[in-house]
Amino acid sequence: MPHSTFQTEQENFWAGEFGDDYIHRNQGDALLAANLDFFVKALKQARDVGSCIEFGANIGMNLKALQLLFPKLDVHGIEINPNAAALLAKTIPADHVYPTSLLNFEPTRTWDLTLIKGVLIHLNPDVLPVVYDKLVQSCQRYLLVAEYYNPSPVAIPYRGHSDRLFKRDFAGDIMDRHPQMKLVDYGFAYRRDPNFPQDDITWFLMEKK
């Protein structure tokens, strides 16, 4: 049954059974190791990161890796899927979990690092400007965007579903819309990496100037 507070089909998709299945596919020590390697590279130019919020945190595999890198990190996470949010609350303080859609989240503070990884690709393209604005609004200093990249917008099938995965230049969109966001570093993580595979993710670290 669609949730009455969700604005798009994509939100209902991830809040429901498909989002539950995603939990089981995306956990474990191998993923944690790959994430740790990923953030060592993606954040090598970042300084004095004391707090972080992740948009679309799922069960907290990214935040777990970040806590290993920054043991005193004040971590927060937004998660639309109720079951994932409940598990996330076992990884980070429960009152740091925002169990809602990114579109409904209203930041009341800023964080040193704002993170979104493998989430923008699954959002309805029509709502991207709203999410871009919330990412920048939440960002005190650094914004890390890690997604599938394509120079121009394109939709591709996702596990037998249409209109559930979109590639584009998300970071470029953000910097065009918010000129105060300046590129600091970028890179690529390859799914065939023999030690620490990711899912062909291109990452962009931006700083708010």
Verbal overview:
There is one protein chain. The protein has a single domain (9-208), classed as Rossmann fold. Helix 3 packs across helix 4. It is built from seven helices and nine strands. The longest helix has 14 residues, at 29-42. It is 31% helix and 23% strand. The strands form two sheets. Strands 3-2-1-4-5-9-8 form a seven-stranded mixed β-sheet, sandwiched between helices. Strands 6-7 form a two-stranded antiparallel ribbon. The protein has 209 residues and is α/β, with parallel strands linked by helices. Strand 4, helix 6 (128-138) and strand 5 (139-147) form a beta-alpha-beta unit.
Question: Key features?
Answer:
two-stranded antiparallel sheet, alpha/beta, seven-stranded mixed beta sheet, Rossmann fold, globular
Number of domains: 1
Categorize the overall geometry.
globular
Taking all Cα atoms into account, the compactness measure Rg is: 16 Å
CATH A-level architecture: 3-Layer(aba) Sandwich
CATH superfamily: Vaccinia Virus protein VP39
The largest sheet is: 7 strands, mixed
Beta-strand percent range: 15-25%
Residue-averaged pLDDT? 89
CATH C-level: Alpha Beta
Q: State the total count of DSSP E strands.
A: 9
CATH fold call: Rossmann fold
The SSE order reads HHHEHEHEEHEEEHEE
How many H/I helices? 7
Structural class: alpha/beta
Estimate percent helicity: 25-40%
Give unreliable regions as ranges. Answer: none
End-to-end Cα distance = 43 Å
Q: How are the strands of the largest sheet arranged?
A: 3-2-1-4-5-9-8
